[in-house]
Amino acid sequence: MSNLYLILDLLILAGPLALSFDKRVAFHTKWPAVFGSTAIIVLVYGVWDVWKTSKGVWSFSSVYAGEFRFLWLPAGEWAFFICVPYACLFILACIRAYLTDVTFSLPRPALFAVAAILAGLGVLWRDRTYTGVVLVVASLTILLSELLTPRSLRSRNFWLAMAVTFIPFIVANGILTGLPVVLYDDRQNLGIRAGTIPIEDFLYSFAMLLLAFSMFDLFSPSAERPRSVQQ
């Protein structure tokens, strides 16, 4: 049971990795962009996670995550930043391979307004470290994505893939928080949960995958990026 967290990560990775050579999706041909995107997630979210864990915002059960720690994080947490982005980028690639995409109008001021609201809420709840920081990070990620990959944010398939990722997220995170593998200090969040999942985790997943998807498109050849065709 001490390896449960790592095993769960590997199960998340197993299906997408085995299907990476499917001829239609040909996900293996996209590995340079996948690995580049994943490296950024490991760097950005790894640093964030180390900081949060060192501050006691959350911790990990030795029963399910083992005793080993590298910079306060168990092996399963480091593997999470590799396995989950890979699996979710695979979902994005599959949706793009099998569904015709359309783009829609999304005014830049509207995105900036959403980012401003999230940042404002982050400042409002700055005394709740997890809540405040995840709101600000989501705000900054939206701004970064709009500046670097604006076409992606106007792609229906981009957002459809994002929505689909919440299905495995609820299952996997439900296990992590239900056992629990990850333990939260509710003084550092709003204390509101969907089942056993803190609501902040939904925004955490959104921000992480928004960054992963945007970096994937940024690193992909121009021919594979979303087209700006209005409908």
Key structural traits:
231 residues, mainly alpha, two-stranded antiparallel ribbon, two-stranded antiparallel sheet, 8 helices
Task: Give the helix/strand layout.
Layout lengths: L3 H15 L12 H24 L3 E3 L1 H4 L9 H24 L9 H17 L4 H20 L7 H23 L3 E3 L8 E2 L2 E2 H21 L12
Antiparallel strand pairs: 1-2, 3-4
Helix pairs in contact: 1-4, 2-4, 2-8, 4-7, 4-8, 5-6, 6-8, 7-8
What can you tell me about this protein's structure?
The chain is mainly alpha-helical. The chain has one domain. The chain has eight helices and four strands; from the N terminus they run ααβαααααβββα. It has a two-stranded antiparallel ribbon. A hairpin with a 2-residue loop joins strand 3 (193-194) and strand 4. Helix 1 (4-18) runs parallel beside helix 4 (75-98), helix 6 packs parallel to helix 8 and helix 7 (156-178) packs across helix 8 (199-219).
